[in-house]
């Protein structure tokens, strides 16, 4: 669950340190006080999109830090280990900093991460239902996603989508082969000739460097031989050879050092120089002995270099890239060879289709079971939301030939009266009915979710009275098994909460800032009374608030 939230310079929040409890918590306050700001901040630290406008006026950056308890199922821990982000603790620390230009940085357990990683981790930790979430339920794609998520079928649905894409690609390749056989054959012949030519050249990138080096040496062989002779004469063969002169000087210093120890360093330096000069002499003689003038070898190398450069010029690539060109040409030739055989492509297409149909068929069976269970559960919930006789159904519509989502789409159908036929949710539900139906669907779907923290942002819009009390009970039931946070303006909902915070605005140093206050029992009575009675709160209103909370009011 969410344990702690720290917010700095975010919108109208200067600094907040909030410790959260388990169960069902209500966030209340007057309109415009900033109730949703807390959830907006939480959404950002979970990987939501950031904008420069979230930084408090006059500040350089906003910072949000959230600490979550690690879910017990172990799947997030496994993901953190895989990503090398596991801290070894029983908590997950998420931090996000957004500067005034809209750029942001994210950290997970103290390690800098990409926003996509932050978002992936956030999906294991919290699920935010926005105040307009029920409007998304009018889209058929969102309806199918909800059914799959409710039945833990999202992973299988992704596999089916990938199998469909593979089948579609092979179908397009087969159709292209059937309609473009002549042009494909011409291209294949050209590539075959190109591959044959490159293979005959037998070019090796390592050979290219060695050939250039040898060609340079052979082309300058006469000059290298003359230079070697000159160096050897200066070292050992000439009248004033360095080796013999250095040996004579070393012998003289050695004799002098016997009478004056201060010359020991000079003797050592000259001795080292004599050794290095002797090594240079032997190395130069070995180099001269290997040198020869070989016009035939030079001509052979020149011819090879011309062949390579000519081939590279022909194909408009650098000589070093000829081997890559050959590999790429071979792959293209293999692909065109397959395309030139529609029958082989048809066999591959048939096998891909069979794989898709098998996986999609199994997914269909599971989807229908989930659809039936969800239909019954939402219908039952609607009865308690002042919609007696209403019915909800997840209709599964077959798609001929299949599609990326499988062998079917789904559509949410509803009727507000038992005597009326089922019709599309988008065409039937009024604003108030849509809010209630959407809330029922979200609550039912959330019961099976593994996410430990559920957040509802004014999802109770458009309801009131007895229905609002029932909504509060539903959220309280959810809070029995996980942490539930709800921003609400309804006293009937807030009164069902296990704990309650109020969000208000205050002016400090000429700035309007948001303040969060945890409420004790007596303070909850005052807040519920405010929500009930508005500006003028009477003792009768307070008694009503205390009764809703199940508390005895003092005085």
Radius of gyration: 40 Å
CA-based shape: flat
Approximately how much helix is present in the residues? Answer: 55-70%
Read across the widest sheet, the strand sequence of neighbours is: 2-1-4-5-6-7
Q: Count of DSSP helices?
A: 20
What class, by secondary structure content? Answer: alpha/beta
pLDDT below 50 for ≥5 consecutive residues: which ranges? Answer: none
Overall number of strands: 15
Mean of residue pLDDT values: 82
In quaternary terms, these chains amount to single chain
Q: Which band does the percent of strand residues land in?
A: 15-25%
The biggest beta sheet reads: 6 strands, antiparallel
Could you tell me how far the N terminus lies from the C terminus, measured between alpha carbons in angstroms? 38 Å
Describe what this molecule looks like in 3D:
Strands 2-1-4-5-6-7 form a 6-stranded antiparallel β-sheet, covered by helices on one side. It has a 6-stranded mixed β-sheet with strand order 8-12-13-3-14-15. Strands 9-10-11 form a 3-stranded antiparallel β-sheet. It is built from 20 helices and 15 strands. With 555 residues, it is of the alpha/beta class. Helix 7 packs antiparallel against helix 13 and helix 8 packs across helix 12. 56% of the residues lie in helices and 19% in strands. The radius of gyration is 40 Å and the shape is flat. The model has no long low-confidence stretch (mean pLDDT 82).
